[in-house]
Specification:
By secondary structure, the protein is an alpha+beta fold. The chain has 6 helices and 8 strands, in the order E-H-E-E-E-E-H-H-E-E-E-H-H-H. It has one domain: Hypothetical upf0131 protein ytfp (Roll), CATH 3.10.490.10. Helix 4 packs across helix 6. The N and C termini lie far apart (43 Å).
Length: 209
């Protein structure tokens, strides 16, 4: 497998470094979460992990018992300016993360990423995160992620899920809280269950711990 570097665009719980590293190193994020096997190459991501904004929309949908509500998906047919956190990893690591997100073992999610870049997207199965999409180039490397292959029915996320997303956003850009809150409020499925004040309370509660 190629060791070529790509940017994995995380937009849900994998925005948090602590959560994302479970998919590389193995282990469980917290009690009640299924342990991850980890990637075949468990090396940490590169030093840079920038936040980017572009012509895509964050949506919360489906229902996760583990997270207590909807989970995040990225839509390319809407212009919402959602944030993605770019992790600098290898092609093999990206495919192993995708495998684990889709309930497969590392090495079982086989997609030609050059084909994805050429076509902008490629569907590999029918699980929640089986559509691999190309978001453009950044610093000379392709930006790739995965999302739902079919339209989703919006469903509000639970507090634990939003907590880990906000934690990751604040890690990446700690001085832009208002921007983070505003972009989350534009996500499909977030309102009316959540207000900006309620999201701010999640951040404040985490800071007080």
């Amino acid at each position: 497998m190629s060791e070529r570097r790509i940017w994995y665009a995380a937009y849900g719980s994998n925005i948090s470094h602590e959560r994302f590293r479970c998919y590389l190193e193995g282990g469980s994020y917290q009690d009640g979460h299924r342990p991850q096997v980890g990637a075949r190459n468990s090396s940490p991501p590169g030093r840079l992990s920038p936040l980017l904004y572009g012509p895509w929309t964050l949506s919360f949908a489906c229902s996760s018992e583990r997270w207590g509500g909807g989970v995040a998906f990225l839509e390319l047919d809407r212009a919402g300016g959602a944030a993605i956190r770019c992790w600098d990893i290898t092609e093999e690591q990206f495919l192993d993360v995708a495998a684990q997100e889709n309930g497969l073992e590392p090495g079982e999610f086989r997609v030609d990423l050059d084909e994805v870049v050429a076509a902008d997207q490629l569907v590999h199965g029918d699980s929640w995160y089986s559509k691999v999409i190309y978001l453009g180039m950044y610093l000379g490397s392709p930006v790739l992620t995965f999302t739902n292959p079919t339209p989703v029915e919006f469903n509000a996320p639970g507090r634990p899920y939003l907590s880990v997303i906000l934690k990751g956003l604040m890690e990446a850009s700690p001085l832009q809280l208002e921007m983070h809150l505003s972009q989350l409020m534009r996500a499909n499925g977030i309102s009316p269950a959540w207000t900006k004040e309620a999201l701010r309370d999640i951040v404040d509660s985490a800071t007080d711990v």
